[in-house]
Design brief:
Elements lengths: L1 H12 L13 E7 L6 E7 L4 E3 L6 E9 L4 E9 L3 E15 L3 E5 L3 E3 L17 E4 L7 E6 L4 E7 L14 E4 L8 E7 L2 E8 L2 E2 L3 E4 L2 E3 L2 E7 L4 E12 L3 H16 L10 H15 E2 L6 E2 L4 E2 L8 E3 L6 H14 L3 H17 L10 E3 L4 E2 L2 E3 H20 L5 H17 L9 E3 L4 E3 L6 H14 L2 H19 L16 H17 L4 H19 L13 H4 L8 E2 L7 E2 L5 H12 L2 H13 L41 E2 L1 H11 L4 H10 L3
Helix pairs in contact: 2-11, 4-5, 4-6, 4-15, 6-7, 6-8, 8-9, 8-10, 9-10, 10-11, 11-13, 13-14
Length: 675
């Protein structure tokens, strides 16, 4: 407990003000390319007047000015062409006496510690101990280095206001940009055993560039053209500070970056009611009733036709049961009996046909191929139980009882209880005979939600005890270690959803726990995990080139979250997290949380597909999923577009949960007086 008190003191008292770096010494270079010829790189040295020069005359002048700021040092570089030139500028900032092997690294929304949870086919220390990447991969154009030996950290943040981008014809090698860009690069490097920050302009990625899931290719270096007499001004801020651990470093860096960029809400014409009306069209358009399981078709759809498929999925990307509850509640609220009937048909079909003989959910059934998943996951099973508990609570409030469903959920939770180990974790994957195929505990927090809900619904303290054991595991293995991993099912690496679920799990435990030390402890853990989750969400608007649909449509990336190290796109995975941020803002007096929650809640409605504004989606209400915002694609189309296959089941469910902020408090308050 003392550790978290110290962390809170650090966050609140220090107010994120840190001393400036002792020096602004850097090593610089400029690469000059002549079309059709390999580039030539020149080392730069500063003269007494602040100009950078090479050993021979260059076709451009470089002036470098350094000034102090409350946060550190501001570095301004001005390049002016003496003649037409194609250039790429780079600086390295060696950290004085900081051993590279003693450091952990941070590039928000992309790189955590050493990315050792990620395979060597994705950016990680498995491939190299030095990486630099284009800025639009990151939720903020920043790199941080944390020295575990003494707690010192250094960050470099690019300060850029324009939103220019240019197309290129190649993904690797030396490429000349087709126009102006505002994208530079940032990263870290091992220089003779010492750590260094690396940054420059335009973008350059090394030692490899990441273009597709688990696909690294040779590095890329971009060159921008300056005409004779034309200038380009570049601006970075270098900051030094000290933090008691990596978690405090990430938290402080997020707050500093938020204060620097001050992202504002995005203008949207949609109120919660208006947004739900549009999203409800997914329910009416995707309903499938030709099989024993009835469902909303929400996975493996094509964006160009949105035709329903034969795949029914309980949780993860399909979210059939949560969407059924959403449709039922909305159908009754808006007097749409046909919609409510579809939802009840889904629940009835899953009660009759949706379980294995052992009592697990049939997680994923593909009727077209006659295939069914034989390996189960704690995440899908938990998400199914979560949805059914919402449904049962709603029905009980309406005076309607479902003893068959209650029995099913009790059996399922008993099955999950058999899988929980002594340390409190649940295995990531297993089969119907309880044989574990993936013991990793990164998905454990997904189980915390239905366990706390079952405690409130059934009044059985054994469920709460199980949830408390998950909290012990989460605190020890994820939160205290700052190691959030393997929550998503289509990647096994550092990911946003692990920190989101960890923070949300502590929120649910706080809701289920009376006021006192235990509840306060859960709240503190919720806040600590929330900073890591926030670090995945964009604080700035990445640029798009003309011809890239998202840019032409005016898409703003602020408030959208990157997915994982493996899956480098943004999406609307939010569910209760915006509500968690609003709650934490009140509980812990952190206005940044509620301010950014407002950004999320407005920004995530930008791509609402309606007639006349479909954003390359074939049907209204089918909200897009794989939003490709950087030089990476899931298989098709690339930056500025979507992948051709998507899963609107979970996007609709996520936004619907965001648009229903009172659900959690109402669920626990309703049952609070009974136990």
């Amino acid at each position: 407990m003392k550790k978290y008190i110290h962390l809170l003191i650090f966050l609140c008292v220090c107010q994120w003000i840190v001393p400036a770096p002792e020096t602004a010494l850097t090593t610089g270079s400029i690469s000059i390319k002549s079309p059709g010829n390999p580039a030539v790189t020149y080392a730069l040295k500063a003269d007494a007047g602040g100009c950078l020069a090479a050993a021979q005359e260059l076709p451009l002048s470089i002036r470098r000015e350094v000034s102090e700021t409350p946060s550190g040092l501001r570095v301004k570089v001005t390049l002016t062409a003496r003649e037409k030139v194609y250039y790429n500028y780079e600086e390295a900032y060696p950290l004085p006496a900081v051993r590279h092997e003693a450091c952990q690294f941070y590039m928000p929304g992309f790189w955590y510690r050493r990315n050792l949870r990620s395979p060597r086919e994705a950016p990680s220390f498995h491939t190299s101990d030095s990486w630099q990447v284009r800025e639009d991969r990151l939720s903020a154009p920043l790199t941080g280095i944390y020295n575990e030996e003494n707690g010192d950290y250094y960050t470099v943040l690019r300060l850029e206001q324009s939103r220019d981008e240019a197309l290129t014809t190649h993904s690797s090698g030396e490429v000349i940009l087709s126009g102006k860009t505002s994208l530079g690069f940032t990263g870290f490097r091992n220089i003779a055993g010492e750590a260094a920050l690396v940054f420059g302009f335009p973008y350059r990625e090394a030692p490899r560039t990441y273009i597709r899931k688990l696909t690294l290719i040779p590095p890329v270096q971009a060159f921008e053209k300056l005409e004779k007499g034309e200038s380009r001004e570049l601006l970075w801020e270098i900051r030094k500070g000290n933090a008691p651990d990596y978690s405090a470093f990430v938290a402080g860096t997020w707050a500093y970056t938020f204060d620097t960029f001050r992202p504002g809400e995005v203008e949207t014409p949609y109120s919660a009611d208006a947004a739900k009306e549009v999203l409800s069209r997914f329910f009416t358009g995707s309903y499938v009733d030709r099989y024993e399981l009835k469902y909303f078709s929400g996975v493996h759809l094509r964006t160009d036709d949105c035709e329903s498929t034969g795949s029914a999925e309980v949780g993860f990307v399909g979210r059939v049961l949560l969407n059924a509850f959403n449709a039922l509640e909305y159908g009754e609220e808006t007097n749409r009996p046909g919609l409510a009937e579809k939802a009840r048909n889904i629940f009835d079909s899953y009660l009759a046909h949706g379980f294995t003989p052992e009592g697990f959910f049939r997680e994923f059934v593909n009727y077209e191929r006659g295939e069914e998943e034989a390996i189960f996951s704690i995440r899908r099973q938990s998400e199914g139980a979560f949805a059914i508990l919402l449904y049962l609570d709603y029905e009980r409030k309406k005076g309607r009882k479902h003893p068959g469903w209650e029995t099913r959920i009790k059996t399922l939770l008993a099955n999950l209880g058999r899988l929980q180990d002594a340390g409190g974790s649940f295995p990531r994957k297993f089969n119907g005979r309880f044989a574990v195929s993936d013991p990793s505990g990164g998905s454990t927090p997904s189980a915390t939600l239905p366990l706390t809900m079952a405690y409130r619904y059934f009044g059985d303290t054994s469920y709460l005890e199980s949830a408390r054991r998950t909290a012990v595991y989460l605190e020890k293995e994820l939160i205290a270690r700052a190691d959030y991993f393997s929550s998503t099912l289509d990647a096994n690496c550092e990911d946003k959803e692990a920190s989101l679920y960890a923070s949300t799990a502590m929120y649910y435990l706080s809701m289920a726990t009376p006021a006192g030390k235990e509840r306060e402890h859960y709240t503190d853990l919720c806040k600590q995990a929330a900073y890591f989750c926030l670090s995945w969400y964009y604080l700035w608007d990445v640029p798009f080139a003309r011809g890239q649909m998202l840019g032409d449509a005016g898409f703003l990336s602020r408030g959208w979250g990157n997915v994982s190290v493996e899956n480098n796109h943004v999406d609307v995975f939010i569910f209760e997290f915006a509500t968690v941020l609003d709650w934490l803002a009140r509980e812990r007096g952190e206005p940044r949380f509620s301010a950014f929650s407002s950004v999320i809640k407005t920004s995530m409605l930008q791509l609402m597909p309606v007639e006349g504004h479909l954003f390359n989606i074939a049907k209204a209400g089918y909200y897009p999923e794989v939003v490709q915002h950087t030089a990476w694609d899931y298989g098709r189309n690339g930056k500025g577009f979507y992948n051709d296959i998507f899963a609107p089941g979970w996007t609709v469910a996520s936004l619907w949960q965001m648009l229903s902020p009172g659900r959690v408090s109402a669920f626990f308050k309703q049952n609070q007086s009974s136990f």
